[in-house]
Hints:
α3 (331-348) packs antiparallel against α4 (354-381). The chain has helices at 3-17, 292-321, 331-348, 354-381; strands at 23-31, 39-40, 45-51, 56-63, 69-74, 83-90, 93-96, 104-106, 112-113, 117-118, 124-133, 140-151, 156-157, 167-170, 176-180, 190-193, 196-199, 206-217, 223-226, 231-238, 244-246, 251-258, 261-271, 276-280. By secondary structure, it is of the alpha+beta class. The two termini are 39 Å apart. A seven-stranded mixed sheet has the order 15-18-12-11-20-23-22, covered by helices on one side. The longest helix has 30 residues, at 292-321. It folds into three domains: 1-114, Carboxypeptidase-like, regulatory domain (Immunoglobulin-like, Sandwich); 124-310, Immunoglobulin-like, CATH 2.60.40; 345-382. Mean pLDDT is 82; it is low at 1-19, 286-292 and 314-330. The protein has four helices and 24 strands.
Amino acid sequence: MTFRFLAALGMIVVASASGAQTRVAEGRVLRPSPKGPPVPVSGQWVVLHRVGFDKAAPMDSARSDRTGRFRIHYSPFGASDAIYFVSSRYNGIAYFSPPLRADSVRGGDADVIVYDTTPDTTALRVEGRHFVLSSARAGRREIAEVFEIDNEGTHTVVPRDSSSPLWTVHVPAAAESIAVAPGDIAAGAVVVRRGRAEVFAPMSPGVRQLVLTYLLPQKAFPLSLPLEHPTSVLEVLLADPRANVQGAGLREVPPAQIEGRMFRRFLAQNGLANAVVRIEATAPPGQNRWALRILAIVVGLALLAGLLFWRVRQGAVLRRSTRDPEAAPNSLDQLIRELASLDSRFERDTNASVEKRDAYDRERAQLKDRISRALADSNERV
């Protein structure tokens, strides 16, 4: 047993001794079937995780029986706002439940939906694409592109090999400082080369978001952006009132106001793969004081708008495949899954170097800090 497991076990013993209330997580491991009800998956290890300000680690595990059912009893300990959830690894890919918020969770949030895998990418489509253009600053414009990639199938799509991406998109040749912002697809799963962003992360059924940010010099405009993929919803937000956009069936709709600043907004539906968006943005007459933080707010609002659509769509997909639907993940759930995945990867690396351990500790501290902020936001909303 690892040191991390022993530490968690010790805290559980202390909690039991102090009379902490026992909770139960009872659910099933299910695999969607192309026809008929979901199929139970037997013999699957289901792991209970705890994430809190004071401690984050696996707590206990159980194996699913022939009907896919499992039951785990546990006692909460430490920080009262700690999050508990279960996961199961199937065909090498980890799947997670929503947080277990009640003392007794039977079915629903305790169920874990797993999927068979396929290298066939035909089920992937672009549900939404959002392009955000800032005003010019120091001769450059900040760009954010948000892609909503929908796996409409019943299998998790995996790379065919290490050189074959699941999904790829054009990046302007003049783009500088290209980065992958936090989202459903981690930066480590995206490779930018030869003018393209290539995604290698497995994609389970449902919608995943990819967020790219980069800088464009003023000389890159007018800018031509090929859609490349059929796109259900295309949105362009322009912070510069002198900028303009055309092509792909875009039409201007009422502007959006954010922190007292107006953004021109253009929308199109059912954009064709061979369509091209042309963006014109002239150089400003003087120094512009447009700040990066405003761009971040715009991107956040775009994601929130898309997230509402995803929840409705993903809920419908799961209702078709399961009797008791699994809740769509929110931003807090995603952070919890990232932390659990990080811990799982580090636990499997039995020969981790000092450098790897330091990198792991840094990344883990950053995730815990983000979870803390998400929990605080959640408490404020309540």
